[in-house]
Structures are given as structure tokens and as C-alpha cells.
Write a structure and sequence with these properties.
- The complex is a heterodimer of chains A (about 140) and B (about 160).
- Chain A has about 140 residues and is α/β, with parallel strands linked by helices.
- Chain A is built from four helices and six strands; from the N terminus they run E-H-E-E-H-E-H-E-H-E.
- In chain A, strands 1, 2, 3, 4, 5 and 6 form a six-stranded mixed sheet that branches.
- By secondary structure, chain B is α/β, with parallel strands linked by helices.
- In chain B, strand 2, helix 2 and strand 3 form a beta-alpha-beta unit.
- In chain B, helix 3 packs parallel to helix 4.
- The chains are: A alpha/beta (about 140), B alpha/beta (about 160).
- The interface between A and B is medium-sized, with 24 and 23 residues.
Chain lengths: ~140, ~160
């Protein structure tokens, strides 16, 4: 049930809660965790793909999360995926499929606070489009 | 508004997981997901069924009810619990509450450790993957929420 868990982080302070919930689920059945952070960006003319986050920053988000899980005795790996703005969900769902996740853990809000007052648009889209149980953390 | 609670098995204590259950297969899936999770973390299950007369059927209230809705719902809920939750595995407290499901579940999840709901309940339209109750709970519940998607065969 919780053998493969996808933990989708957005780089916000809410990641702490998402990681705590991920850890708890993983410990229940010795589950493996795949941490994913999707680096959003825009295609701007000749500049091509212009990311909204620095590469080092997103790698640190994932590395810190993986280290935290491993320190807690949880098997974990991490990855950073890239997406143009608005298609983050597709990357999260693709990662979930690739790692054979049985549950997705993610926060309700993140870097999209200003535009998504109730549920972050990413979480909302995952709930709409995903075929897996989604744990929305608070 | 809460009307009556129908206790099936022991009251909730300690860690508490609220599960929204209606007549839908998705809600049974939610209970199937929640039961082993509750057992694993030593939590109790607070299984909640909400009912209300929608505005479009308000005229029915002028007719004498064929049976007490809460009694009917309590029996149906107890049957679902017995079908899905293996006896003795986890403490279950079943409640039948009057009110819109989304509001009832959000209120019931106050102080709970987790709320588990099906993504689309009995009232959803075919093809609508996330129902209004699931969306409302994800947005407003005071605790973390697990949304269980429809089963492949149930589409």
C-alpha cells in the first residue's frame, strides 16, 4: 500500500510537513520514497527556457529532503524535473508512474500562494487528473 | 447541522481518522484505504455519512417520511463498515449526520489526524474526476486529507 511513495516538494516552507507525512507513511511498511521537485520555467523568445528557480536551489531542496529521509532510516532517492509553467502536474504524474508510486504526498500551497488562495493549483490538478491516492498535507 | 450519532463500535480515542462514506464505490475505496492505515498507526476510524434533502427535493418534506432517514442511513453505513473493515482490527465509530457532506466532513475532521474521502461521491457527474465534496475538503479541512481516486473498473 505504501511501498512506493512519491513526495512532491515545491521548495516552500510547507515542504517540512509534506516530508513529515512522507516519512510516517514510509515507516509504516518500509516504503521507498521518490522525492521530486519540478523546476518551472518559461520559454521566452531566443532566450529559450528560462527557469524561475536557480538550478542549485532546486537541487538543494531535493538533496536536503533525501538526506532527511535517509537519516530517518527511509530509503529515498530524488530527482529534479523541468517543466514550462502550468505543466508541473504532468511531470509529477509522469514521475509517479515511472517510480510505480502507490500514493502521492504533496502540500496544498507553495510558491503559488498569491494565485491559489485555497488549494494550490498544482495540488488541485493532481487531484483532478491523478489516478492515485493523494495525501494533501496541512 | 449535526442531528444524531449512531455508534457502531467503541468511541474514538487517541489518533483519529475521519472517513467520508456514502453509497458510492469511491467512498468504499476510501474506507478500504483508511482501515489498514488506521490499523498500522493505531488510530481509530470515525466513519461519517452525511445526508440532507437538497433544495430541489424540498417539496418532499411536506410528505410524511416513509422511514427515519437517520435510521436508514445508520443501517446502510453499518453494513458498509461490516463489509469493508475486518472485525477487531480497528476501533470504528460510525456517525450519521444531517447536512451537506462537504461541510459535515470538514466539521467532523476538526481535531482529527486525517480525513479520507473518495474523489467523486454519489452525487458526482460521470467524467468529473474530482467532485465538489473532495475539492471542498481538500481546501477547507483543518487536517491533512487523502483523496482516493475512482477505481478503473468504476469509470
Amino acid at each position: 500500500m505504501f511501498e512506493h511513495i512519491l513526495s512532491a516538494l515545491d521548495g516552500s516552507s510547507h515542504d517540512t510537513r509534506t516530508l513529515a507525512a512522507t516519512k510516517e507513511l514510509a515507516r509504516l511498511a518500509g516504503g521507498q520514497v521518490r522525492v521530486v521537485h519540478v523546476r518551472e520555467g518559461h520559454f521566452i523568445g531566443r532566450a529559450g527556457f528560462v527557469p524561475s528557480e536557480e538550478p542549485d536551489d532546486v537541487v538543494k531542496v531535493v538533496d536536503r529532503a533525501v538526506a532527511d529521509l535517509v537519516d530517518a532510516g527511509v530509503k529515498a532517492t530524488g530527482t529534479v524535473r523541468a517543466s514550462i509553467s502550468g505543466l508541473v502536474v504532468a511531470e509529477i504524474l509522469a514521475e509517479a508512474e515511472e517510480c510505480g508510486a502507490s500514493v502521492i504526498v504533496m502540500g496544498t500551497r507553495g510558491v503559488n500562494d498569491l494565485t491559489d488562495l485555497l488549494v494550490g493549483s498544482t495540488a488541485h490538478k493532481v487531484l483532478h487528473l491523478g489516478r492515485l491516492p493523494v495525501l494533501v498535507t496541512r | 447541522m449535526a442531528q444524531e450519532k449512531a455508534e457502531v463500535r467503541g468511541p474514538p480515542q487517541g489518533l483519529r481518522i475521519v472517513v467520508g462514506v456514502d453509497a458510492s464505490e469511491e467512498s468504499r475505496e476510501a474506507l478500504r484505504w483508511a482501515a489498514p492505515y488506521a490499523e498500522a498507526i493505531g488510530a481509530s476510524l470515525d466513519v461519517v455519512h452525511a445526508w440532507h434533502v437538497s433544495d430541489e427535493h424540498a417539496w418532499l418534506q411536506s410528505l410524511p417520511p416513509p422511514a427515519n432517514p437517520t435510521d436508514v442511513a445508520s443501517k446502510a453505513l453499518a453494513d458498509v463498515v461490516d463489509e469493508v473493515v475486518a472485525p477487531g482490527t480497528v476501533p470504528v465509530h460510525a456517525s450519521v449526520l444531517e447536512g451537506h457532506a462537504a461541510k459535515v466532513l470538514v466539521k467532523a475532521s476538526k481535531g482529527a489526524d486525517l480525513l479520507v474521502v473518495g474523489s467523486r461521491g454519489f452525487g458526482g457527474f460521470d467524467g468529473l474526476l474530482l467532485g465538489s465534496v473532495g475539492a471542498h475538503c481538500a481546501a477547507h479541512a483543518p487536517c491533512s486529507v487523502v483523496i482516493i481516486p475512482p477505481t478503473e473498473t468504476g469509470d
